[in-house]
Amino acid sequence: MGWSVALACASEGEPGKVFGPGLVPDAQAAASMARGLYPAATLVETGDTVLDFALWPYEDELFVGAFGRALLLCDRRLFGLDDDARRIADTAAAALPGANCGVLVLHSVISGCWFRWYEAGELRRDVFVTAEDGVVVDQGPRLPAERPFWRAIDEGADDVPLPFDPEEFGLALAERYMFGRRLAERGADGFLPMELPLRRFKLC
Length: 204
What we know:
The protein is α+β, with helices and mostly antiparallel strands. Helix content is 26%, strand content 31%. The chain has helices spanning 15-18, 27-37, 51-54, 83-94, 147-154, 166-179; strands spanning 5-11, 43-50, 61-66, 70-74, 100-106, 112-119, 122-130, 134-139, 197-203. It holds the Pfam family DUF6928.
């Protein structure tokens, strides 16, 4: 499909139970999160949208969805894979006390995946893979959902070119650890993650 994603997703509890019908966004909490990330910037609230639209923001935009037990943050600066990206990821992971948080970055042209996993605000897993360069970062214990992807490498295959698809890898982790369901599939309960409401901010 060719996904472009710059997303942090935190939840208190099993994500498949946290994310579902009836989630009510908290605009005030979303604004507070946005201002906390960029205290020196002028932030202008420019309305509401849904996750489908927000996954890959413009460079001067930020999207936040606050739902009490869950937080979504879409920020193109995560794509930088630098100190600022790590600051943003760490901030999102610490926003809800005791929550787990996944950070996923994919790009439709650059075939790679960056995924970070936090438990109660502590970074447990940091992995960055690309189709051309193979395994760039592989820190922390691998998550159970990763194991099928690593099998060939663990059995001795070279990682260049990468023997699995980075996008499939990232989406599998998002399904298991971030939402408890596939991003673009409506569940039997009628819930579709891509329809989650987010507040839109412009950085001036």
